[in-house]
Task: structure prediction
Amino acid sequence: MTSSKIVAGIVAGLLAGGVIAAFAVAWRPAIPAIEPPAPQSFDANLVKRGRDLAAIGNCNDCHTVRGGKAFAGGLPVPTPFGAIYSSNITPDPETGIGRWSEAAFRRAMRSGVDRAGQHLYPTFPYDHFTNVTDEDDRALYAFLMTRQGVHAPARANELAFPLNQRFVVAGWKLLFLRRETYRVDSAQSTEWNRGAYLVEGLAHCGACHTPRNALGAERVSAPFSGGDVDKWHAYALDARSPSPLPWDTEALYRYLRHGWDAYHGIARGPMAEVVSNLSSVQESDVHAIAVYMTSVFGPPTQERLRKEDAAWARLKSLPAPSNSPGALIYAAACAPCHESSRPLPYGGVNLIWSTALSAPDPRNAANIIISGIQPVEGERSPIMPGFGSSMTDAQIAALLNYLRGRFGNQPGWSDVENTVRDARRMQTVFLKTQPGPHNAPGDPMQRDKP
Amino acid sequence: MMSLKVNGHDHQIDADGDTPLLYVLREELKLNAAKFGCGLGQCGACTVIVDGKAVLSCVTPLLLLEGRQVTTLEGLGNLDAPAPIQRAFMEEQAAQCGYCIAGMMMRAQALLQKNPKPTDEQIRAELQPNLCRCGTHMRILRAVHRAVRLMDSAALPSATTGSAR
Result:
């Protein structure tokens, strides 16, 4: 045997070993298909609990196309790597999860593997769902398996090679998937722990509010320090929060439960669906989320408190408006609502309290000026007409610069006009809130009443 | 004094910059097709076209409109020479009380200028901001589909002239 043959043998051996190792990492067995269980076979109370959990998990938001059939999937989720389409999670036997056993469902939630053994892309936030208990997975399974089955075949993802190869996801998991990261903290209250369980698990708040690294994984070193989603900025929810008034538990509760808070404004963009879902679940769970998130924000620093005082002071004595184009537009188009004395949600928030105007970039403010706030069907909800058709990019940019200077009390934004142009391009898809699964009573403050 | 271009004509308007376009159209220029509905930009009765896009004139202050082209229903056609969109709405008898109809036609016109072959779903989505309390939605939908056909046939040139003015 020549030495070259020996080298070739070693290389071949290493390659084979590598393939076997990669196979061991990537390969997952299929879980046998089952006969679709009859809806009646699920306990009604379990289904009801699953319904609330699905609302907390915001499942309908990604798994339903706007105006389409609930949970039938097909919504493109934009990622830096290409669009990934959500899957059909109705109990349709052919195109949904009708033949999935509870074990298969639990494996998908826990480790992002579908019934057939294929790795799921982490747009499905199993890095959070891995924290969901077996008991809650059972309830979610019962809820989904009792929905209307919809025949809706999966749409092909728009990913380039090698990301279109699902085994690549196994490598991603090896690097970034930490299983069961949530631990009970016995030093904290039961309510805090409930909130932590929901936030870190099913509610997957960090999926938007935590920045992601180059490979699309949440940066665990910077939890809740602000992220990006669908051309919106998801604000920092820690000490870096740009909100002029520090959040406290009650304000957070009101905002999450009712969709707005008088001193923080209105949930919109991707957050609108979240609060719509949270308006229909157990009050105590929303409060627990608020309690936990208050501790994530942490007690306001001296600097935060100074900023708050400054905001109150400006509220009392704003300088006289200038005659700049932005100031004139504000006075003519915005002030009639935003400086009316009508309370929220029917009047506009006083922009001194606007988080968008104190945010690191003008994306959210630009989005809202362009598209406004659509009314939620079947509810009395906050409204704002969009000005995208009546204002030019230059006018919106002038307005944004003025608002930032007058109300933001922060250094000016750069590149405002480009942001406006981008915002105009993406304006449609994610702005329309859809009616929630519930029939909310007319007065949004009375959603809790039967 | 400010110059405002409406239906192809320049007008010198003596009004403050924060005056809503709707007031100027109705009170100064006596163009009464656009209606005052809610005054909050929520019902669509005041819809006109600005540079090809449907705009709610009750929440559009005059100062935004320097150098831009405003088109009202009067600019599309009149009783003697109705534009395709107007003919279509008449032929389908789409008006009940008629208060929303001018706004409906303007938003539909803006849609058809941008997308001459909209699907039923696209028409519904586009007209969604415009409210009709009489419930003639099905006729309105039929009228927009009819307008598509009218514009597609010989009527196309007159539709473009109307909007370009």
Notes: Chain A touches chain B through 17 residues (CB under 8 Å). Residues 24-176 of chain A form one domain. Chain A has 18 helices and six strands. Residues 428-450 of chain A have pLDDT under 50 and may be disordered.
